[in-house]
Specification:
mainly alpha, 58 residues
């Protein structure tokens, strides 16, 4: 339960940071942020699944 909540919080904040950074920062950082945004979204989705399906990773 706690792992799922932590993954949701970290994934959501990572997604927000990545989207903002990819649209406002200069060249090397915006590419890295654009590549990290989908990964952070997947982390948030995996955390949401862990919250609602307790035996998902067992």
């Amino acid at each position: 339960m706690m792992l799922g909540a932590a993954l949701v919080v970290l994934g959501a904040s990572g997604t927000v940071w990545s989207v903002v950074a990819s649209t406002t920062r200069r060249r090397p950082v915006d590419l890295i942020a654009a590549l990290l945004a989908p990964l952070a979204l997947l982390v948030a989705l995996a955390g949401g699944v862990l919250l609602f399906v307790p035996g998902f990773l067992k």
